[in-house]
Amino acid sequence: MTRMSRRLxxxxxxxxxxxLAPAAQAMPTIPDNSPLxxxxxxxxxxxxxxxxxxxxxxxxxxxxHRGDELLVHGTGFNPQANRGGFVLPVPPGTPNGVWVLYSxxxxxxKPSEGAPAANRTHxxxxxxxxxxAGTLESIPNAPIDMRRSIARESQPMAADGSFTAxxxxxxxxxxxxxxxxxxxxxxxxxxxxAEEIFVPLPYSAEPGPHAPAAPTNELSVRADWLAxxxxxxxxxxxxxxxxxxxxxxxxxxxAADQGDGIRRYHGTVTAAAKYNVVEVAVRDPWxxxxxxxxxxxxxEVSQGINVGADxxxxxxLGVIREDDADPVLIG
Length: 331
Known about the structure:
mainly beta; about 10% helix; ten-stranded mixed sheet; 2 domains; single chain
């Protein structure tokens, strides 16, 4: 048995993600050159610069591989800049900081030059959001807790505009362009040409010394419906720790047999709307034999629509038949 075609995530979760689509498409922005915001930002002179090293401080020139960890050292940034942009999740007038990531964008990628957001598509879970003091604390934690998930990707910017961001090379299967390297630019929808920086750094798809084990994909779950809902909110459908997402399906790797007849699989698949307003995860599905060719399906599932993998519990999801070429859940 290698496939299940059933929506393992709760339908209410998909509905919650889908309802966010109009809001995501119409997110209002505030220009960074608003007189009020410029006054609040002060008159600091920016002279931003970055260098890229490995964890031991050695300069990195590439090629880098999936799983490699990089330190991006920044100096000369303005911690009071980037106060415009989207009205959420950082409140207007609060410095947004900068995003730091490794990927491949097209040659036309800079927000200040009018490049569309699609040219900078990248999973939030695979970037660093470098924030000045107070920015993370300003993000709402009620009625929807946006702060909890953003805290995972946040890294600090010092009062003098310096930072050291630690990022892992983990590009998505499809990137917006072919110019590989480290990118830094104003976060939260702000536009600041002074802080748009690209350092070329070639990428090799060959496994490197830190490459994670490839998923073995023994269990496959249909996920095209969920991917469509996530895409509508400019969110992400991501996989890790033995799971994979490809061609409209989520896959999980077989875990070690414990001799009790249960088929255990490992891996985590997470669906998140933009800024993780909705974030749900499914982890480590099990198939428990019931007899007569039937198997009970269970998995660890998020215990809320925006807690991701932080708060999970195992739940029964249904029953499948083994004699079906593409089994479906029953009940």
